[in-house]
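Progress note, project year one: complex with flavin-adenine dinucleotide.
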Amino acid sequence: MRLVPTRLTAEELDLQSDVRSYLDQRLPVGSYPLGLGMAATADPQFSRDLGSKGWLGMSLPKEYGGGGRSAVERLIVVEELLARGAPVGYHWTADRQSGANIAQNGTEEQKRAFIPAIARGELCFAIGMSEPDSGSDLASIKTRASRVDGGWLLNGTKVWTSYAGGADYILTLVRTSDDRHHGLTQFIVDTKTEGMTISPIEFLDGTWELNEVVFVDVFVPDSCRLGEVGAGWSQNTSELALERGGVDRWMSCMSILTHWAALQVDPSAGGHAVFDLGSIVARLWAFRGMSLSIARMVDVGESPVTEAALVKEMATRFEQDCVRTVVKHLGRAPDLMSEDPYESLLARAVLVSPSWTIRGGTTEVLRSVVAKGIKA
Ligand SMILES: Cc1cc2nc3c(=O)[nH]c(=O)nc-3n(C[C@H](O)[C@H](O)[C@H](O)COP(=O)(O)OP(=O)(O)OC[C@H]3O[C@@H](n4cnc5c(N)ncnc54)[C@H](O)[C@@H]3O)c2cc1C
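Model obtained:
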């Protein structure tokens, strides 16, 4: 385990200021529904606008239509978006991990087909890993791909598939043989394929981003297989460094926090609110340093899976503490139907924050990844 302290260079700070200026104009306060970090509204036009600025697919290879920039530069853009609760839902998964997975493991044809469209903000991806009987123990998945002429037939059920309802593709992990780890393979499945049923699941806050996805004899051509047959487990594991170690793991309620700090905390008055704000800022600053350090590791070709698990384990519990702190200072339960968008967002956070330590791997599982990582 290694997290080396790092800071933004002058060029990186210039990018940060460009993004801030652009977002001040593109997303004036009140012009969009506030999101809880990555669990935000899908706004395809906003995603396309970011794509036209060169701020999606930033770290994907230039020769395939990506930005050819660094993971740190991508972090800078994402941090500004999440700080405003921006509508990032449409491009989120593609930009964070599916594009990188395709760039690393895809065929020439797949890279040319997907990467330019991801960088233009034109594609919505979902990730189909979890199943009704397999979440933490992902290697026990049962959805199966059986070889047929020219491709594969998929049968089984995925669940909790975020954004599948509006997605163009589901990058799914399925079983291609009985070998627990080496019998898993990834496929890029077009959501319009016959035999797929995508049913939304209502979440606690009344949103419908989660889905159940049922495959019944879904034909997938072999050209949609991502990577070698049997390589799915290791590909999926590398994706987790991108999924777990980023700023999204500690920025879910950032717009609530900044609003609370600006309007309700008076540093000259002292007291509990000032104490709590100081404590939150201290922890935020540490998490930011950790995510930045992880992005630098990705930029030099490392796969900091253990470090990313460490960030997610600590940061998602911190996010839940933040929600509790703001509610404590409000002095009553926030109202989901409030006309104040920040109070309504806080009420949503109260309802959904328990899921922050579950999605992307539970706290217990992450502790075990960290423990194994430091022993290795
Ligand atoms: C908001 C949200 C979005 C999600 N989005 C997606 C998505 O887009 N795609 C996708 O594929 N999945 C998604 N998931 C599913 C998520 O990855 C799983 O819920 C998660 O991995 C846990 O799996 P499970 O729900 O089956 O719980 P289980 O694995 O059954 O775990 C139940 C409990 O047992 C504990 N436990 C399990 N194994 C161990 C162990 N070995 N040691 C100690 N404790 C253990 C867990 O920590 C947990 O507390 C999402 C989940 C949520 C809540």
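The mean pLDDT is 96.
The pocket of flavin-adenine dinucleotide is lined by residues 126-130, 135-136, 160-162, 210, 355, 358-359, 361-362, 364-365, 368 (CB under 6 Å).
No further modelling is planned for this target in the current period.
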